[in-house]
Amino acid sequence: MMADIICSMAHERHFVALLYRNEQQHTSTEVRARRLAFHGEGVEEHYPLAYIDMSIVRSFNAIRCDATMMPSLASFEVLRVLTIEDCSNFQLEGNAYSLEPIRKLLHLRYLGLWKTPVHELPEVKNIKHLEVLDLRQTGIPELPESVSLLRRLKCLRADGGSTRVPDWIGSLTCLEELSLNDVSSCPNFVKEVSKLTELRDLKVWIRWLDERSKKALVKSLGNLQKIQVLHLDGGLWIEDAEWEGYVPPRQLRCLSLRTKSSRLPRWIKDSFLPNLSHLSVDVRVVEAEDLTILGSFPELMTLELFVPNTVSLLFEGHPGSAFPKLRHCYTSGMLRFLLGAAPRRESVHFNVSLSALNGASFQCGFLGNLPWLMEVRVEIFHSDVEVYRAKEVEEALMLAVAVHGNRPTLHVSKFELSLNEDTEKEEDDIELEEEDEEDW
C-alpha cells in the first residue's frame, strides 16, 4: 500500500513516471517527468513509448524489455542515467536495436547493462562525465580501450561471463569500486591494482597465480589503505606465510577470502580489524585458538567458515565476551554453541556428515543456548545405508526447534552420497572451484 502511495505521489508531482503491466497508456502530454522507469515484463509488444517526449528525460530505467519496446537512444538529449537491465531477450542483431547513440550522450553519468546480452560496447571516450559502468553478465569479451579514458569513472563492474581484464586498468585512478571476473589471464593486474589507491570496494575472482604474482598481489593490497570491502574468490591458494608483511586498513568492514588456506591468516585479529562486521574465509583447519580470535571481534555480525565437512566447531565463551554482536553464522562443517557464546545469534546454517560422526548420536541441544534464534538451516550428508540415521537427525532437529522459545523456522536438506563420494568429498571440493567461477 505504501509503495502504491509513493508511486502515485511521484507521478502526480512529475518526479518519476512508472510504466508497467496493466497501467493505462500515457500520451506525451501526460508524461512530463524527467525520470522514466519502464518495466516491460508482461507488457504488450508494441507499447507506445514512441509517443513520449524523451528530450527532457534525464533518467531512463528499462527492465525485462525487448527491442520492440525500447525508444531510440538518439531521442534522448540530456540523459544522465541509463539502465537496460535483465533484458534476456534483447536482440541486437541486424537493425533490431543500436547502442551506438550512447557515444553522443555527453551528459551520461551512469550506464548499467546488467544481464543484457549486448556483446559489444560502443566507443565511450566522449562520455567524459561517466562515473558508473555496470557490464555484469553482458557477454562483452573485453573492455574497449576507450574505457581507459574515462578519468572520472568511480565504479566498474564486469565480473560475470568471460570479460577479459585489460592491462590498462591501473589508469582508472578515480575508481572507488571494482568488480572483475577471473584476473589470472592478466599478468599485470596484480601490479596495476596498486595504482587504484582510491578503492573502497574490491571484488575479484582469481583462479591461479604463480609465487611471484602472489607476492605482488599482497604488496598491492597493502597500498589500498582506503579499502572497506575486500573479496578475493577463486581456487587460489594463499598460505599464512605468503601474507607476511600485510597490514589491513583499520576501516575494513567486509572481508571475504574464498581463496584456499591451511590456517587462518595471522593478520585476521580484532586489533587490526576493529570495524570488521562480515567475514568469510576458506580454511582446512580451525583450532580452538582461531575461534577465540574470531569471537573477539566487537562488531562481527556475519561469519562464514568454509571447512571440510568432517571438521566440528565448538563455540564457547562467557556472556558478552564471545561473538557479542554475531547475528548469522554459516559453516560447511558441524558446530556447537555453549551457553554464553554468540548470545544474539538469529540464524545458523551448518552441515552434518554422518560418516564423520562414526556412529555417535547427533546432539542439537545447543540450539537452546541461542535465545534470539529465528532460523535454522541444516544439510545432512549420508550414505545409502544411513538413510534411517539421517531421518533420526532430522527428527532431533525438529524437536529442538519445537521446544525453543522462539519457535525458529527449520530448513533441512538431505543428500545421499555413494561410498566413493563420501570418502573423496574433500578432494572434490577443490575441483568444484571451477564451477564456482561461473556461479560467481
TrEMBL record:
InterPro entries: LRR_dom_sf, LRR_R13L4/SHOC2-like. SUPFAM superfamilies: RNI-like. Transmembrane segments: none annotated. Residues 57-410 form the Disease resistance R13L4/SHOC-2-like LRR domain. It comes from the Eukaryota. Residues 421-440 are annotated as: Disordered. Keywords: Repeat. This is Disease resistance R13L4/SHOC-2-like LRR domain-containing protein. It comes from Triticum urartu (Red wild einkorn).
